[in-house]
């Protein structure tokens, strides 16, 4: 039994690790890009600009080119969202996991996991919200002084959780967003809605929304939402109490037994899963990360996020990411990035400015030079919960790990020069 179990476990891990590569291959075949597919998608990289802005009643969404081969092969869908004061992003769910970073402002996020009580929580600038595929959610800007709420949202569509075509799909419960997504109730007959929800047909018709509704998917709540916000520290206790009450009402719980032992399919853990974590670093380091180690829900999403701030003219020495694709979005300033592939070819040597997006492929070597005026600020999403980053120089780097003799022989250097190369950047930890 033990060898069989071990074999099955190994096969399961291999299948899990290969799901993203299979998704990328499917993306290539479905994109109509020809015989090359993802094989040639990263031969030349280009910074991406938004191609259109869609305005709703109380906010805007910027869209990048979904057909871009580099985004498809990275399995990424990316949108910056701006929500006006008292603006509500109508409830929806998507076919991929999502990470949303609050770039500016404060707000409230609500989510509904199957079988769990209603849940919503306040978040602030620097917080990251992580939501699983298919989980309905909404956002609301409750900030004062008419301050907009800016969210940077990354969707992962190349996972085994998405068995549709490798393309982002929003399923909305209300409103419409041009031809991208429409109220799902519009596709059901009024009579069926009335009977299944046990409501009258007039209410069912209103649930489908008017045919001339032009508010979009971000609507204004004139008098604001009135919500009873549980304190963050007490949120888990509140949810656990609700679950216990539900079980006693339905007769599922037995006296003297803990409710979590009775909840099927890890419902207890799913309902109490923390979905918000702050990315700000108390030690004021230049580059901070959220990974599956510090934010466990990222392990189920297979994603992580990084925020970086570089001073003017500061250089990040060469590095590469071993086990993840990286999608970089510039939030401030500019930088020149050089990216090199296995052929020793610079597939990118270009400036990246605020508002632009760049896909950096797995294993490709990157060097960053911050702009001379405003420095460089960015957010990077990686397609692995615990990415492994290998530095070329500095502490713990490739060069630091090579014997002096190997360096000297590889480059035909003298021993003295090889020592200089090996110890380059000294103890500078800022590289990545």
UniProtKB/TrEMBL annotation:
Family named by the database record: Belongs to the 11S seed storage protein (globulins) family.
InterPro entries documented for this protein: 11S_seedstore_pln, Cupin_1, RmlC-like_jellyroll, RmlC_Cupin_sf, Seed_Storage-Functional
Record's subunit section: Hexamer; each subunit is composed of an acidic and a basic chain derived from a single precursor and linked by a disulfide bond.
Biased composition (Polar residues): 251-260
Organism (species): Setaria italica (Foxtail millet)
Keywords: Disulfide bond, Seed storage protein, Signal, Storage protein
Protein name: Cupin type-1 domain-containing protein
GO MF annotation, one: nutrient reservoir activity
SUPFAM superfamilies registered for this protein in UniProt: RmlC-like cupins
